[in-house]
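Feature request disguised as a bug report, sorry. It would help if multi-protein outputs had a clear separator. Right now it looks like this:
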Amino acid sequence: MNTELAELIARIAGYQPALAGRIGPALAGELVAGGDPAPLAALIDWWRQRHPEAGPLYWASRCWTLIIWQPLYLAVWAVHGTGVVPRLDTLAQRVQSGMVAGYALDAHRLDALPEDAAVRRAAAEASAVTARLYDDLAGQLQLHPKMAGRLLADSLLSGLLSVARGRSDWNVTRTVTLGEAWLDAMGLAGQSGVLTFDLPCGGQGLGLARKVCCQHFRRADGELCASCPKLKPEQRLLRLQEEWMC
């Protein structure tokens, strides 16, 4: 059991180096959904002190995206990179210097499932842990559920696009279809989307069709992101095209 999980953790780290994990219980100072509120409080305080001018909406948005990215990316990479579904209920996340990177999972059995069943199972795991994380955040900072859901959808699809970039056997249609399947499985249909666009050098690029702003522009050094819905469609297209190297 431990060998199988260790292999999964190692493979995911090979795909996504920031997802460096271990097998075992949570250590002191690690963030566990529904657990000690101190690690999340420390994360919020770090961003509050570094960017006091940005305000509570930015702090909430930033911390929310930081505490959800690992469970979402783990779910997506496990399904499409290894074909198995890990349990996420024991997920412990490392919080340090305003960042959340690194995790631990208790030893458990991994089930190999057909892709459609694996997506549904992994989506259920991710939904459960992120719902508890939202409750934890709501106990310390206000973030409207609608905004939280759309940011959750954006992060989920960001994980899928990170997989798609390394899959030469995936075409644009398959990526878009899988994105819709994941959103539907997590009850987030219509909250984000995969945007396709033509590239000046030929071919098609993929980006996020975001429906909510992450509030990065509120920082003194901030600006609107390339996929920000506050941009006019033509501005967003140009920015997204510029991000792709032809």
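(second protein starts here, but nothing in the output says so)
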Amino acid sequence: MPAPLEPLDVVALDGFLCGVLVQPEPIARARWLPFVADVEGRSPPDGFDPRPLHALVRRREAELRSAIERREWFDPWVFESDSPGDATDLDAANRAAVAAVLPWAAGFTAALETFPALLAADDDALTAPLALLYRHVGTDTLDDAEALNEEIETLEPPADLGQAVEEMVRATLLLADVAGVRHLR
């Protein structure tokens, strides 16, 4: 992307799209699409055509939307860490899993904070799935996170990347249930 734009990386973008899709009311593409090319939603400079990028993003959004509406498993775009480590060392496996899902969780929570309707819902059923996400990024950006922090404290760290990814998908589908996501546009 041309300067001064700061695009979401592909992993954060995938999480961001899921965070947009689980909102209680559909968010128009025109509102969230600018955040793909720039984390602050700034317009691209003259001469830059974002349409090819937007077409690819819309295709991924449609895949995710379909899976979330049907409450089916989807494969989040999460990549294993390149850091060396002993696969038999539980602490190393946990650190690698957390490092791998961090950008995805950051993208998801960025969408929730950019479009806060879901976070504003007063529903205790949000706490458990939000804890699965916010434990990776922290709750410092949230106003009233006491219950969320308490829930995070009860969670066991993911044993490996597979479990961490499963928790991200489970959190997404649970949030879709709470929000009443049906047919998105």
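Even a blank line would do. Unrelated, but nice: The mean pLDDT is 90.
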